[in-house]
């Protein structure tokens, strides 16, 4: 097998990570991590994800963390009975999902 044929048969780790489905174990791990964070730390994590998205780093990991952050903030808002925050999060979640779909179409 020559070098060109070999390169055509090799999938980079980054490409493999982006094409494989996210496992329940990964979701549970991210969810457990986010539950451990204080609200301040959760917001800091959110800002880091926003920076990655703004830099164009869209992949399954960023999508997973983003959706789980929204889920965790929504859960905390529901627990505290903050309906205004819950409604704002619904709007943010819709916009986030629409943007992820749009960005995936561009890639």
Walkthrough of the structure:
- By secondary structure, the chain is mostly helical.
- It has one domain.
- The chain contains 6 helices and no strands.
- The model has no long low-confidence stretch (mean pLDDT 78).
Key traits:
mainly alpha, 6 helices, 107 residues, 81% helix
Produce the secondary structure layout.
Layout: H1 3-9, H2 13-19, H3 24-36, H4 39-54, H5 60-79, H6 83-106
Strand content: under 5%
The chain-level structural class is: mainly alpha
Given as residue ranges, the uncertain stretches (5+ residues, pLDDT < 50) are none
> What gross morphology would you assign?
globular
Total count of helical runs of at least 4 residues: 6
- Structurally, the number of domains stands at 1
Helical residue percent? Answer: over 70%
In short:
This protein is mainly alpha-helical and 107 residues long. The protein contains six helices and no strands.
């Amino acid at each position: 097998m020559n070098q060109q044929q070999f390169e055509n048969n090799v999938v980079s780790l980054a490409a493999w990570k982006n094409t494989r489905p996210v496992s329940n174990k990964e979701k549970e791990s991210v969810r457990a991590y986010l539950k451990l964070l204080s609200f301040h730390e959760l917001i800091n994590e959110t800002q880091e994800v926003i920076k990655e998205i703004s830099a164009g780093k869209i992949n399954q990991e960023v999508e997973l963390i983003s959706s789980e952050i929204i889920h965790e903030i929504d859960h905390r808002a529901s627990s505290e009975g903050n309906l205004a925050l819950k409604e704002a999060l619904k709007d943010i979640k819709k916009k986030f999902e629409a943007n992820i779909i749009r960005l995936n179409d561009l890639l």
